[in-house]
Amino acid sequence: MMKSRIPLVLLACGSFNPITNMHMRLFELARDHLHQTGRYRVIEGIISPVSDNYGKKGLVSARHRIAMAQLALETSDWIRVDPWESEQEKWTETIKVLRHHYNESLRSLQFRKELMRNNWPTERATEDFLSSLDPVSPELKLLCGADILKTFSTPNLWKEEHIKEIVEKFGLVCISRSGSDPVQYISESELLTRFQHNIHLVTERIQNEISSTHIRHALCKGLSVKYLIPDSVISYIKHYNIYTEESEREK
Amino acid sequence: MENPDNKTQVVLLACGSFNPITNMHLRLFELAKDYLHETGKYNVIKGIISPVGDAYKKKSLISANHRVTMAKLATESSDWVQVDDWESSQNEWLETLKVLRYHHQKLASSNPANSLQNAVPLIKPGRKRKQEANRYIPVKKNQLNPETKGVPQLKLLCGADMLESFGIPNLWKLEDITEIVANHGLVCITRAGNNAQKFIYESDTLWQHKNNIHLVEEWITNDISSTKIRRALRRGQSVRYLVPDAVRAYIEKHNLYSPESEDRNAEVILAPLQKYARGCKQEQTL
């Protein structure tokens, strides 16, 4: 049954400074929602931490942020962290990260198909298997909090043509708090209204405000963050003494 | 350097259904400990989770056996919070005060400095558990005085909803509430904008003992109630990162929460309501 559905990859961009349980919840909520539409089959989740030259205050090195995300995702069988964006020399616009991962997913699909053909060139069963193997290439959607819709209207933050490409070619999955009204942001923008079929709104019924900023502040004050971020990430932070008052000040 | 010897040792006790235990329950302990340590006056040495027994008859309450096991799995990674199954293994529902008394006596008798003066013999061999549980041994006020500082204070840890449940008719006995706040103390985790302060102000009993009630403000909204977890599970939605992974795996393996389990005790009256409503005590004004 799931086979006839559109395969879908979710991409989340951000600082992940550090990754929290909330980030991983966004993926779980999005996947549940998309599966319940009956149209999609979520095959992968990708976390793409921003590179160091993004220049955000208190941003610790990508090496650490990626290691922490890897530890946090050890227990997940469908979400992974991808270092590509963080390895770029310059800060990369979100649209370019989307394009990169879209091309990557096409490439790996092509690669798998060829591998199958070469290994079992004549068997009929293989042909059947191949045709059952993702007949359509997967869609890639940007996973984000609903507040991103608000930032689209902030002057000079986004290029209009980038927003258009995101919602036209890819699509958005926005998680919103119950009580907030993302529908309004969409209706206030002609562009978003035009492509609203490509914007999936997911309401978070269990409130969750575990922001990375909160976590860093608590760590600097020596307060417990247990059960807000995975134990393995807490040990890593302690071991390398990553978040301190100094790291918070650094630009 | 602060000398930990000058600080009052505290043990935190949380009573509840834990149906199932969630990350929120575990956070309550962390928040309370941080808060008490920040006061500079307390040293939290232990946390105890005491799941209620099946006789509580709450709707949707699954067997204590499973709830205790899940709580144990959840606290495996904690070096200070433990699960105690004494309450849940009683045949009858027990008032929270009795659970507090039991743990208080246990702490007092295990403390060598006080075992001679204050300790009450805990368990007499050959006695039935039920009787032990209902034996009335009030905690005397002087046990909290400085001369018995060797015995840790036992404080009840709760969310704001429990504080407010004090106002529900027939759920609590007024004398129990009084003894809890007078002799033990409450650590209550509240949300910003919550009216816990007002609630204390409006109750004469709570106001009188307000120095024994610690209100701890939660700095991250945490809404992971067990009710919502069960609802998500019934709908086949993910509860990952809301409950510990070991608990999630256990729930899946034993298929614990279903529409059927949700209807357990549906027609039954909650044990405390059965007990207190019988006496028709209406003077429940705090």
The CATH architecture name of chain B reads 3-Layer(aba) Sandwich
The main β sheet of chain A shows up as:
6 strands, parallel
What's the helix count of chain B? 12
What fraction of residues of chain A sit in β-strands? Answer: 15-25%
Give Rg of chain A in angstroms: 20 Å
GO biological process, one term (chain A): NAD+ biosynthetic process
Cofactor (chain A): Zn(2+); Mg(2+)
Organism (chain A): Platysternon megacephalum
Keywords (chain A): ATP-binding, Magnesium, NAD, Nucleotide-binding, Nucleotidyltransferase, Nucleus, Phosphoprotein, Pyridine nucleotide biosynthesis, Transferase, Zinc
Describe the structure.
The complex is a heterodimer of chains A (251) and B (286). Helix content of chain A is 47%, strand content 16%. Chain A is an alpha/beta fold and 251 residues long. A 6-stranded parallel beta sheet of chain A has the order 3-2-1-4-5-6, sandwiched between helices. The longest helix of chain A is centred in the middle third of the chain and has 26 residues, at 94-119. Chain A starts with 5 loop residues before the first strand and ends with a helix. The model of chain A has no long low-confidence stretch (mean pLDDT 89). Chain B is an alpha/beta fold. Chain B has a single domain (8-111, 149-280), classed as Rossmann fold. In chain B, strands 3-2-1-4-5-6 form a 6-stranded parallel beta sheet, with helices on both faces. In chain B, helix 2 runs antiparallel to helix 10.
